[in-house]
C-alpha cells in the first residue's frame, strides 16, 4: 500500500493547531512569551501567523504546546498578514474597527498636528494589552506604539 505524504502545513493551519493545543494544554499566552523571552503580544501574534519564528523559538513553543513537528515547521514559514486572515465579524475585532471608524480621523489629526504629515509604522511597532482595575468593571488598556514616519518630499 502506497502512503501519500500530506502537503506541508501553512501558517493558517498552524495557527488553528496552536489554538487547539492551547485549549488542550491550558498554557497561557504570557507563559509562551516567557518561554522564548518575548512579549506576550508579539508571541501571540507570531503563533497566530503574523510574525516568523526562528527554528529555536518554534521548537520551544512546540514543546510547550505539545505540537506535531509539521506544525512546528509551519511556524517558521513567512507570515500571512492582512485582512484575509482577520475575522472582522468577530465581535472584539469588529468593535476595534468601530473605534477606528469613530476616532480614526481624530487620531489622524492629532498625530499630524504633533508630528507633521506622515504615518505611524506597524513595522517598528509595539503593542501592549493590560487589565486596568475599575470599580465600575475592569477596563482594557490597549497601547499601540509605532514609530512616526514622515512622508518624504523630493
From TrEMBL:
GO MF term list: cyanate hydratase activity
Family matches, as SMART domains: Cyanate_lyase
Record flagged with keyword Cell inner membrane: no
Active site positions, chain numbering: 95, 98, 121
SUPFAM superfamilies assigned to the protein according to its UniProt record, in alphabetical order: Cyanase C-terminal domain, lambda repressor-like DNA-binding domains
Residue ranges of domain Cyanate lyase C-terminal in the record: 81-154
Keywords: Lyase
Pfam families hit by this protein: Cyanate_lyase, CYNS_N
Catalytic activity from the UniProt record: cyanate + hydrogencarbonate + 3 H(+) = NH4(+) + 2 CO2
EC identifiers of the protein: 4.2.1.104
Role this protein plays: Catalyzes the reaction of cyanate with bicarbonate to produce ammonia and carbon dioxide.
Name recorded for this polypeptide: Cyanate hydratase
Organism: Pseudonocardia aurantiaca
Name of the gene: cynS
Amino acid at each position: 500500500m502506497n502512503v501519500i505524504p500530506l502537503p506541508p502545513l501553512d501558517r493558517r493551519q498552524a495557527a488553528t493547531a496552536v489554538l487547539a493545543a492551547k485549549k488542550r494544554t491550558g498554557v497561557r499566552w504570557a507563559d509562551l512569551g516567557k518561554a522564548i523571552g518575548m512579549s506576550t503580544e508579539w508571541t501571540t501574534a507570531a503563533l497566530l501567523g503574523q510574525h516568523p519564528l526562528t527554528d529555536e523559538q518554534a521548537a520551544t513553543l512546540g514543546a510547550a504546546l505539545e505540537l506535531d513537528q509539521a506544525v512546528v515547521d509551519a511556524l517558521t514559514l513567512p507570515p500571512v498578514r492582512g485582512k484575509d486572515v482577520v475575522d472582522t465579524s468577530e465581535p472584539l475585532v469588529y468593535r476595534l474597527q468601530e473605534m477606528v471608524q469613530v476616532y480614526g480621523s481624530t487620531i489622524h489629526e492629532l498625530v499630524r498636528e504633533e508630528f507633521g504629515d506622515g504615518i505611524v509604522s506597524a513595522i517598528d511597532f509595539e503593542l501592549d494589552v493590560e487589565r486596568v482595575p475599575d470599580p465600575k468593571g475592569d477596563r482594557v488598556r490597549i497601547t499601540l506604539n509605532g514609530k512616526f514616519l514622515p512622508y518624504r518630499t523630493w
